[in-house]
Amino acid sequence: MTRSSAPGKVYLFGEHAVVYGEPAVPCAIERRARVGVEPRDDATLRVHSDDLSLDGFTVEYAGSTDGKPDIDVAESLVDAAMGYVDEAIAQVREVTGEPDAGFEVTIESDIPLGAGLGSSAAVVVAAIDAATRALGVELSTAELAERAYQTELAVQDGQASRADTFCSATGGAVRVEGSDCRAIDAPDLPLVIGFDGGAGDTGALVAGVRQLRDEYSFAADTVASIGDIVRQGETALADGDVAELGRLMDFNHGLLSALGVSGRSLDSMVWAAREAGALGAKLTGAGGGGCIVALDPTPETETALRYLPGCEDVFPAELADEGVRQLE
Ligand code: MEV
């Protein structure tokens, strides 16, 4: 078995706007997806997972996601999980020049699915790394990030940025603007994550923002203003000014709400964090449901979220300096 892991991430700033060429700053966190692969002697793909925040599924299919597993979870989540693995393996077949390669794939993840912590990017990065290595091909980090990005692009109907996949492949804090992706320095950040137990449909949320942006010039201005916040945020990061970062995160959340991608439970976690004295709080990722990220050097936000009805899990997050990791 060849195994790799890759980290999830939070967005300090810039999700959604990054799809339209504005910069974004995601940071990898120490929550990982681990993918093990074993080449098969036929072209079949078999995927096992016990903990993608699904009840556990085992699926056998050959190159398409048409055959759905018979399990009692939201179909869109299963489609998403299977679609990403399927497309990741298509990239592996292409880059290794082995169109008939088949695999037994086992996924373990401590990153909730579709919750804004980059679960799909982490699974895709780890799967491509493990499967290419299993076929004797070693990709550079840049090539791995590119293949992972192509995977997300294919699954998300051509609407994806490089942010999630690049951050998961390289680790650390990164800045992404179009195809320009680079590591940046970040101070130690007191990140606290709240999770409402739900998930958002990234494709639908991205499409909703696109529609608003096409329809209203002020929605297009809102997207551009998020870009301004990110640029100001980069200065605050470089200065290590955590209080200013918090203020900018609050502002960023307000603009994401205006674009229709927040929701009642995300807003209520954001407000609980602010009322507990967090320096700032915002949703992270595509939105709809899932996670918020707050900045709080004290235990107050964690305590407030722990007792907030509707918040299912809360944990402090450490920055992951290392991206993809070869386990064996
Ligand atoms: C999703 O994690 C982040 C979005 O900006 C989409 C993307 O960048 O591909 C909403």
From TrEMBL:
InterPro entries: Galactokinase (IPR000705), GHMP_kinase_C_dom (IPR013750), GHMP_kinase_C_sf (IPR036554), GHMP_kinase_N_dom (IPR006204), GHMP_knse_ATP-bd_CS (IPR006203), Mev_gal_kin (IPR006205), Mevalonate_kinase_arc (IPR022937), Ribosomal_Su5_D2-typ_SF (IPR020568). SUPFAM superfamilies: GHMP Kinase, C-terminal domain (SSF55060), Ribosomal protein S5 domain 2-like (SSF54211). GO terms for molecular function: ATP binding; galactokinase activity; magnesium ion binding; mevalonate kinase activity. Pathway: Isoprenoid biosynthesis; isopentenyl diphosphate biosynthesis via mevalonate pathway; isopentenyl diphosphate from (R)-mevalonate: step 1/3. Residues 84-172 form the GHMP kinase N-terminal domain. Keywords: ATP-binding, Cytoplasm, Isoprene biosynthesis, Kinase, Lipid biosynthesis, Lipid metabolism, Magnesium, Nucleotide-binding, Transferase. The active site is at 164 (proton acceptor). Pfam families: GHMP_kinases_C (PF08544), GHMP_kinases_N (PF00288). It is an enzyme of class 2 (transferase). PROSITE patterns: GHMP_KINASES_ATP. Its EC number is 2.7.1.36. It is found in: Cytoplasm. One of its GO terms (cellular component) is cytosol. It catalyses: (R)-mevalonate + ATP = (R)-5-phosphomevalonate + ADP + H(+). ATP binds at residues 112-122. Belongs to the GHMP kinase family. Mevalonate kinase subfamily. Catalyzes the phosphorylation of (R)-mevalonate (MVA) to (R)-mevalonate 5-phosphate (MVAP). Functions in the mevalonate (MVA) pathway leading to isopentenyl diphosphate (IPP), a key precursor for the biosynthesis of isoprenoid compounds such as archaeal membrane lipids. This is Mevalonate kinase. It comes from Halovivax ruber (strain DSM 18193 / JCM 13892 / XH-70).
